[in-house]
Amino acid sequence: FTDLSSKQFTFPSDPHGIKEPHIVLHGLFSLATVQHSNSLILTTVGLGSYKVHTGSDTYTYNKLPTNLLDWNSVCWTWDSQTGLTQLWLNGLRTSQKLLGKSVVRGELSIIIGQEQDKFKGGFKTDDSFEGDITDLHMWDHVVTACDIRSYMNQGSFSPGNLLNWNNLNFTVSGNVFIQDADFVEPVLWEWA
């Protein structure tokens, strides 16, 4: 396990580019099981558009306020018992949507920066995320809105109990680089 505090994964762009015009889904996060290759997926569909996928249900959030050429803080919640899902972007929350209820069981394959079309595989270059990812956490419960706001305002939070960026077991594959994170955390003001 490695502490990736103040580190980022860098996914450089493909120098050959895309040969034919088409809609590109850039995989940010993909969780698959042997039985379900698309258990949980978060992708970008274009500027300000994010697609969330659970089991066989999908919802696309469009026209979200996005920072150009700067960090975007993304948080996705999904309640497996109710199906309620919500996306947070840069401290702003979307309305809740209803996706399917399901339980994720069995051996997991979690891929960052790429969608997997089958368990631990089925990768397409065009689905690769281009950019930097840092500070990824995952919990086995829905994180409260107060905790999300605290995190996005650089306050304290409980690290993920399933994925913890500060104690992560991972393997790097392909053109992915681990670098010092280049973001500057805002100063927290305390009033007496």
Helix content: under 10%
CATH architecture: Sandwich
Write down the secondary-structure element order. Answer: EEEEEEEEEEEEHEE
Taking the alpha carbons of the first and last residues, their distance comes to 39 Å
Q: Name the CATH class.
A: Mainly Beta
The stretches of 5 or more residues where confidence is low (pLDDT under 50) are: 186-192
Side by side, the strands of the main sheet go: 5-4-3-2-10
Helix segment tally: 1
Q: Helix/strand-derived class?
A: mainly beta
Count of individual domains: 1
Tell me the fraction of residues in β-strands, as a range: 25-35%
CATH fold name, please? Jelly Rolls
Shape, per Cα inertia axes: globular
Number of strands: 14
Overall radius of gyration: 17 Å
Residue-averaged pLDDT, rounded? 85
Largest sheet properties: 5 strands, antiparallel
Description:
With 192 residues, the chain is mostly beta strands. The protein has a single domain, classed as Jelly Rolls, CATH 2.60.120.200. The protein is globular. The C terminus is likely disordered. One of its GO terms (molecular function) is metal ion binding. This is Pentraxin family member. Keywords: Calcium, Disulfide bond, Metal-binding, Secreted, Signal.
What's the gist of this structure?
By secondary structure, this protein is mostly beta strands. It is built from one helix and 14 strands; from the N terminus they run ββββββββββββαββ.
From the structure above, extract its key features.
five-stranded antiparallel sheet; disordered C terminus; mainly beta; 4% helix; 1 helix; Jelly Rolls; 192 residues; four-stranded antiparallel sheet
